[in-house]
Design a protein that fits this description.
alpha+beta; Restriction Endonuclease; seven-stranded mixed sheet; 18 strands; globular; disordered N terminus
Length: 443
């Protein structure tokens, strides 16, 4: 193996397996090793350029969610003509990335010429991304997600970042892609970097947050993104917890602090319990929509759930599985409830996940009342009603032998305009149950 130049924090070691790199990171607990495989192979049935775009799309859809990866559904009007939106979009919540994939489809030339070509295509990619955002802000466009569903995308509803994604067999050492400012955050990655981020985090929201964070820093050589990731992760691990008022969720609230970026890849504990959250996301993604719901509603619910920090997902998975084992243990005709809820540090997004003995119309109405009550209580304390939302997800054991549980969701936003009588009924029902110990909350 050949060792490349190192720093106090990291060093790359070329693996015996061709194309695989091992990143060695010095941590307080000792060296941490992370094997970084090459990017996903390109599809064999398409040309190189289209194949690189498809492979980047596949990585984001597989390790993230297909519902957050979009491409053009139709041409968007531009004056009297048409403008094709050929970019891939990554969307989650209120953030979006325009992804421009550029592939080297001929045999690379000497390093100096290759570096010049990379600068040229980087500038072109950023200009194209800027044009796409400008067009989406002028005229919303129908975009198709990874499940083949169409959603209208209004560019004004998102905070954007431009991503130049390079597919190249051998990037010259220390090549830093540069471009003229385009009026929004922008970042350059190799396709290996892209795959690494999605494999590491397994969350589209987390990847988008990382891209915005990294874009605010000085540019680094292409291919060095895993190094920067671990520098960020080390800083997160050393950072003290933020001061958050736990009373916003009511009595019994506790402060939970976890690094924004975990050093270990998602699921590295070998238990795969982090997949519980992914299964919940898939359940929502595959559920039928009611008459009053749209794909935009589904996208919002998925985005809210995907905000759950990556560092917390394994612990939540263990807890939810324990809840599902526990709630059936009651006499017939009785119902046991267990809940876990969390409030973001800004106090505007609340997530409630619960389990109940069974699912029927009464359980559905009761859970909806619980979500509305907790939303009202929190917004009354924060005073940020109009900007606040609460997502509730309920798991109930399934006995058909095909799946372990059923998933249902309720989302509320802003002022619910609950009457005093509704508040009295909801509070007497749920808060009395909590006092009596028949409901378990914040396990």
């Amino acid at each position: 193996m050949t060792e490349q130049p190192s720093s106090a924090l990291h060093r790359f070691v070329e693996d015996d397996d061709p194309g695989v790199l091992t990143l060695i990171v010095d941590t307080p607990q000792g060296p941490h090793l992370r094997r970084i495989p090459p990017a996903l192979p390109l599809p064999s049935h398409v040309d190189h350029g289209s194949g690189a775009e498809a492979a980047a799309h596949t990585a984001a859809a597989t390790w993230g969610m297909p519902d957050f990866v979009f491409q053009q559904a139709a041409h968007a009007a531009k004056g009297s003509g048409q403008r094709e939106l050929g970019d891939r979009l990554l969307l989650a919540g209120q953030r979006g990335a325009v992804v421009q994939v550029k592939a080297r489809t001929i045999k690379p030339k000497p390093d100096a010429q290759e570096a010049g070509w990379i600068q040229k295509v980087a500038a072109k990619a950023m200009s194209q991304a800027k044009g796409t955002v400008r067009q989406l802000r002028m005229v919303p466009a129908g975009m198709v997600n990874g499940r083949g569903r169409t959603m209208s995308v209004d560019g004004s509803a998102y905070e954007w970042i431009a991503v130049f994604l390079l597919d190249h067999p051998h990037v010259p050492e220390n090549t830093v892609a540069t471009w003229q400012p385009i009026g929004m955050p922008a970042i350059a990655l190799t396709r290996r970097d892209w795959d690494f981020l999605f494999d590491q985090l397994r969350s589209t929201t987390a990847v988008l947050d990382y891209l915005f964070r990294a874009a605010a820093e000085p540019p680094i050589p292409l291919g060095e993104e895993p190094v920067r990731y671990y520098e960020f992760a080390a800083a997160d691990a050393a950072a003290p917890p933020k001061d958050v008022d736990t009373k916003l969720v009511g009595p019994g609230g506790t402060l939970f602090s976890a690094p924004q970026l975990p050093q270990a890849p998602a699921g590295a504990d070998g238990t795969n319990v982090h997949l519980v959250i992914r299964i919940m996301l898939e359940d929502i993604a595959l559920s039928s929509l009611g008459d009053s719901l749209t794909e935009a509603n589904r996208f919002t619910v998925l985005s809210d759930l995907d905000r759950l920090p990556v560092s917390a997902r394994a612990e939540w998975g263990h807890l939810l599985l324990d809840m599902l084992r526990d709630v059936p243990r009651v006499p017939d005709e009785h119902c046991k409830w267990r809940f876990r809820r969390t409030l973001d540090e800004d106090g505007t997004r609340q997530l409630i996940v619960g389990a109940a003995t069974r699912f029927d119309a009464v359980i559905q109405a009761s859970f909806s009342a619980y979500v509305q009550l907790r939303h009202h209580e929190v917004t009354s304390r924060t005073g940020r009603t109009e900007k606040s939302s609460t997502l509730g997800v309920l798991l109930t054991p399934c006995h058909d032998g095909r799946r372990p549980w059923d998933t249902s969701a309720v989302r509320v936003h802003g002022d619910l305009e609950l009457s005093q009588e509704e508040l009295r009924v909801y509070s007497e029902g749920w808060n009395r149950a909590l006092e009596d110990g028949t409901v378990s909350v914040n396990d």
